[in-house]
Amino acid sequence: MSRSGPDDGGMPITGSRPARGLAAAALLAFLGVLGFYLDQPGYTHTRLALFLALGGAATLGTAGAVLGRAAIAAVGALLLALLGVWQAALWIFVLPVAGVLAAASLLIALDERTVQER
């Protein structure tokens, strides 16, 4: 009895498809949070640059997760986490998104490894 793989229409063994959807949902929520905080009093060009970098890193990681590229998702998660350490006020939002991207990257990598072993 063989397991079905992601390429033959079956479900992936590790469940990376739900993780990809969760990464996309986390990105949308995160971009909403960034938009909300960008409009708060104290707007500066530095804040805009940081928020663009945070949004770009999150978008990069989510694109990697949705496209099934584990390395790109991992790079996006790492960049997001590193930029999030610099912005202490947004840690509560940045680190969970980085965690979701890291988990999606791990699940995608495990799926790829499982498919290669068959």
UniProtKB/TrEMBL annotation:
The chain crosses the membrane at residues 20-38, 50-83, 89-110. This is Uncharacterized protein. Keywords: Membrane, Transmembrane, Transmembrane helix. It comes from Halolamina pelagica. The lineage of its organism: Archaea, Methanobacteriati, Methanobacteriota, Stenosarchaea group, Halobacteria. It comes from the Archaea.
